[in-house]
UniProtKB/TrEMBL annotation:
Keyword Transcription regulation in annotation: no
Organism: Marinobacter salsuginis
Pfam family, one: DUF6691
Membrane topology, as annotated: Multi-pass membrane protein
Record protein name field: Membrane protein
InterPro entries attached to this UniProt entry: DUF6691, Sulf_transp_TsuA/YedE
Parts of the chain that traverse the membrane: 12-33, 53-73, 85-104, 110-134
Domain of life, per lineage: Bacteria
Organism classification: Bacteria, Pseudomonadati, Pseudomonadota, Gammaproteobacteria, Pseudomonadales
Keywords: Cell inner membrane, Cell membrane, Membrane, Transmembrane, Transmembrane helix, Transport
Amino acid sequence: MIEIAWSNFTPWSALLGGILVGIAAASFLLLNGRIAGISGILGGLLAPAKGDIAWRLAFLLGLIGAPAVWVLATELPPIEIEAGYPALIIAGLLVGIGWGIAGFCPGPGLVALGAGEIKAAVFVAAMVAGMGIFEVIERSRAKA
């Protein structure tokens, strides 16, 4: 049985945040013809094409500056990570390897799925299957 921490259940902020991210991703795709993937935008600064630096820096500065603007309205939520460093390192490596193989990280994979890319459908299906496998393993560990 899944336990829900109702004190952490914030559907209205999740809804508003999801709408804002969705509008931003769709706008980026419609106006620039690009998927708003942070790793791709940052990676493009390593060997930028001519005229390709300003928009990348503007995007990243907006991303970094958003928490500073948020603090003007309210306090930032506390950051709580219960996993240890080995688990975080392994998770990061798996995401990086998966991204390198598939060409998507989770967020842009979902955006590409929404844009109708077949490759993204396969990626998202495999990602959801992996999440399901993880959940089964975690539940069996919790029972033991």
